[in-house]
Amino acid sequence: MKKITDERLKVRNLKNLRIAFLVENLFLYGVLGWQLIQGKGISAVLDWGNVPFAAVLIAGVTAAVLSANVSEPMADKPRMATKRLVRIGLLVWVIASIIFWLTIQEQPLGVHLALAVGCGLIIALVWTGIDAWGNHFRSNDDE
User: Fold this and answer.
1) Which helix (H) or strand (E) holds 22?
2) How many CB atoms lie within 10 A of CB 92?
3) What's the pLDDT score for residue 133?
4) Is 52 helix (H, G, I), strand (E, B) or coil?
5) What are the Cα distances from residue 42, in Å, to 39, 101, 105, 110?
6) 102 vs 91: CA distance, rounded Å
7) How far apart are CA 130 and CA 31, in angstroms?
8) Model's pTM, two decimal places?
9) pLDDT in tens, 43-83
10) What values do phi and psi take at 78, rounded to 5?
11) In the chain, what are the domain boundaries?
């Protein structure tokens, strides 16, 4: 396979990829909407066992992570210190745990607390991971 060297073809290829991603996501959202119209409950549609929903979530996270290497250098922000990344991660963990504590219902107290803290930790780890990945592409202050 030959490497594309013409800039116009590179731009056209990127536009084609963007359109393909848009069509794919519209199809998946249409399938999810069709499932709702057919009477499938919202909890069944928004479940990891539902393949279209899982595909939408995975595609969204992948797009967010991959766009960091383009958006972070263009943001022109200085690199964050590791301590600040950790503090932000801990704050996200506390906030997400509180939100999960308020939304998870009908569980014994120990299970309720473990679920809230565990789910909050997952959100905080993903958030902090994306921040750390984006921080990798930021410039140092002394450059």
Assistant:
1) helix 7-37
2) 19
3) 82
4) helix
5) 9, 21, 17, 27
6) 17
7) 29
8) 0.57
9) 888 888 889 988 988 888 888 777 776 776 666 778 888 89
10) -70, 160
11) 1-75, 76-143
